[in-house]
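Quick one, tokens below:
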């Protein structure tokens, strides 16, 4: 029996392996196969490291085959890359994984280097966001970020984790329960991504450090003056839409793109829109074209070229404003140039 990788990529590994015959194999692509027996080994190794939760099959296929194609389930840009851009993605992926590795630890609660399976989820995401901004990748690496991935929620609580994932600005560290790395990948179209959201906060922290500012401003690092201007003007539009809704209970023209959650602070505004930019770029560009364009200029590419929208956030947010639910308080303060 041969399994097509695309058919099983998002299926939970334990469920799939329990039913797959051990003398069968998965075709990653025409020239690469991986046997079910070796996938069982990869799963056993991962469980022995302390990861007891579900993981999508695509991850085991990558660990056993080292075929980057297998990671395209998590990072759809890979499918789209060719020539020099593909080489650049591969270069930076290897660079951050092998040559100047980022500090990615698994906490059981003892701290050990995270298994390859987890490291590639973090690094692949960072490289996919900035494949066309190698200057940001270089600065990101030299800024010594760290990632603490906890095997369960009690370890997460014990090491100071807050909410569903968090960024510790003082330590420049993202803390997540490890299984949340996979949460949005049990469907063919990737859904929620706590890592992307926290990465937005980490980039904000990186910007603060590079600019030697006293606090995070909800802005990305290494923006040109023009990019910064465009971001602030477009952000101002969203904030004004939200403030109008908040004060009147009605939308004016259109609803804001983001949920009230992202209007709580400048940092949440960046993190929330950063995640939506990658997860639902088509709806984002249609609803808030200026803000979309501002982000696309900063990352220097357009995710619409390779992304199918996840509708979860957009539909929830649209429904929230359509119902006329009470808005949340907002502490956003850096949305107009005169405040800067
Ligand atoms: Zn947040």
């Amino acid at each position: 029996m041969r399994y097509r990788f695309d058919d099983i990529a998002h299926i939970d590994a334990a469920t799939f392996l329990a039913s797959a015959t051990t003398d069968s194999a998965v075709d990653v692509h025409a020239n690469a196969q991986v046997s079910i027996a070796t996938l069982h080994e990869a799963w056993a190794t991962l469980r022995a490291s302390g990861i007891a939760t579900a993981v999508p099959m695509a991850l085991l296929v990558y660990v056993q085959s080292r075929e980057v194609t297998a990671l395209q389930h998590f990072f759809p840009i890979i499918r789209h890359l060719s020539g020099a851009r593909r080489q650049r993605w591969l270069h930076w992926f290897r660079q951050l994984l092998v040559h100047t590795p980022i500090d990615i630890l698994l906490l059981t609660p003892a701290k050990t280097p995270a298994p390859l399976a987890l490291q590639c989820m973090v690094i692949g995401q960072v490289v996919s966001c900035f494949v066309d901004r190698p200057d940001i990748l270089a600065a990101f690496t030299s800024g010594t970020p760290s990632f603490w991935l906890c095997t369960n929620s009690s370890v997460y609580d014990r090491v100071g984790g807050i909410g569903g994932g968090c960024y510790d600005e003082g330590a420049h560290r993202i803390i997540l329960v490890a299984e949340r790395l996979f949460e949005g990948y049990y469907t063919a179209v990737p859904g929620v991504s706590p890592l992307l959201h926290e990465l937005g906060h980490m980039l904000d922290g990186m910007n603060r450090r590079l600019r030697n500012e006293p606090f995070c401003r909800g802005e990305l690092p290494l923006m040109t003056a023009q990019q910064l201007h465009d971001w602030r003007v477009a952000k101002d539009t969203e904030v004004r839409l939200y403030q109008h809704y908040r004060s009147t209970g009605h939308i004016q023209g259109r609803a804001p793109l983001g949920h009230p959650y992202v209007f709580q602070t400048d940092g949440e505004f960046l993190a929330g829109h950063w995640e939506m930019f990658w997860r639902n770029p088509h709806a984002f560009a249609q609803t808030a074209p200026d803000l979309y364009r501002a982000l696309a200029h900063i990352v220097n590419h357009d995710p619409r070229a390779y992304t199918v929208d996840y509708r979860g956030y957009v539909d929830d947010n649209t429904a929230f404003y359509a119902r006329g639910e009470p808005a949340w308080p907002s502490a956003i303060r850096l949305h107009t140039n005169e405040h800067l």
